[in-house]
Amino acid sequence: MENFIISQNKKISGKKAAGAVWILFGIGRLIFVKGSLDKWDWMTSIAFFLMGIIFFTPLVGPDKPQIEICEGGLKIFWTNWIRKVMVLDSEIESIILAKNGVMIKRKDKRPLKITFLSY
């Protein structure tokens, strides 16, 4: 069985747009600062640039919700979350695939809902 990756419309996510803005702001700050650059200007420009790289790449979390099959259960990655959730096979009561998301009902625990973003 293959991993379940939810594909959505090819729109730019807010996280990538924010990353691009931070990168441009960091570079623009170095280019358009009037006068000589002191240590503070260099540090803030590099900090803005690095923040943009972190937001633009998947270092903050995946852009799409994913369900990976692994030994003994499922790993669930939510959109823009660093933390992943492990659900053991013995906990799963049922898996419901709906038009707007996936629901995993667990024994003696709250169900997990993974919604598809539609914006």
What does this structure look like?
A hairpin with a 5-residue loop joins strand 6 (101-106) and strand 7. The chain is an alpha+beta fold and 119 residues long. It is elongated. The chain contains two helices and seven strands, in the order E-H-H-E-E-E-E-E-E. The two termini are 30 Å apart. The mean pLDDT is 77. Helix 1 runs antiparallel to helix 2. Strands 1-2-3-4 form a four-stranded antiparallel β-sheet, with no helix packed on it. Strands 5-6-7 form a three-stranded antiparallel β-sheet, with no helix packed on it.
Brief summary of the model shown:
This protein has 119 residues and is α+β, with helices and mostly antiparallel strands. It is built from two helices and seven strands.
Supply the number of helical segments: 2
Structural class: alpha+beta
Question: Which runs of at least 5 residues are low in confidence (pLDDT < 50)?
Answer: none
The helical percent reads: 25-40%
**Beta-strand percent range:** 25-35%
The shape is elongated
Q: Strand count, sense and closure of the main sheet? A: 4 strands, antiparallel
Rg computed from alpha carbons, rounded to a whole number of angstroms = 20 Å
SSE arrangement, N to C: EHHEEEEEE
Cα(first) to Cα(last) distance is 30 Å
Average predicted local confidence, pLDDT:
77
Give me the count of strands. Answer: 7
Give, in spatial order, the strands making up the sheet with the most strands: 1-2-3-4
